[in-house]
Amino acid sequence: MAQPPPSERALAGALDGYERVIEIGVGRRPEVARTLADRGREVVAIDVDASEEARGAAAATRPSSAGALRVVTADVTALAAADDDRGVRDALGLEAFEDGFDAVYARNLPAELQRPTVALAERLDAACLFTTLGFEEPIVDVRERSTESGTTVYVAR
């Protein structure tokens, strides 16, 4: 497996203290989710159109007491706006994670998904960390956490 780029390593490092996490917008790059699962974390990676790459990473990650990766087709905007918490729990598989989630994160989070991502984290009473596309500034209240690689990880909760 190829080494993830510095920005993805920085995000994975920032998430080291969290046991159960959700990745928003996993797309075709499941490296952060896979890295976290390999480090013993329980990861649910969501996307509106879960890619074969993400599904393959989940299939290759063996669920164990050490960690797991599950890929779910879901829309963060719909989850954040849902009227019914049960629907959110079902979509995310919360029954599998009775204690809920510790953090919601995203890499290269576009501005239009920042508010729903933070809203989902608030709904789940979870931390929210993300990186941006680089040319965009966060549109939500954040604290900046700079890393040795020069990557800025934004902490919204």
What does this structure look like?
The chain has 157 residues and is α/β, with parallel strands linked by helices. The protein has one domain: Rossmann fold, CATH 3.40.50. It contains 6 helices and 7 strands. It has helices at 6-14, 31-38, 52-60, 76-81, 85-92, 111-123; strands spanning 20-24, 42-47, 68-73, 103-106, 127-130, 143-146, 152-155. Strands 3-2-1-4-5-7-6 form a 7-stranded mixed beta sheet, sandwiched between helices. Helix 6 (111-123) links the parallel strand 4 and strand 5 (127-130). Helix 1 (6-14) packs across helix 2. The longest helix has 13 residues, at 111-123. The termini are far apart. The mean pLDDT is 88.
How would you summarize the topology of this molecule?
Elements: H1 6-14, E1 20-24, H2 31-38, E2 42-47, H3 52-60, E3 68-73, H4 76-81, H5 85-92, E4 103-106, H6 111-123, E5 127-130, E6 143-146, E7 152-155
Parallel strand pairs: 1-2, 1-4, 2-3, 4-5
Antiparallel strand pairs: 5-7, 6-7
Helix pairs in contact: 1-2
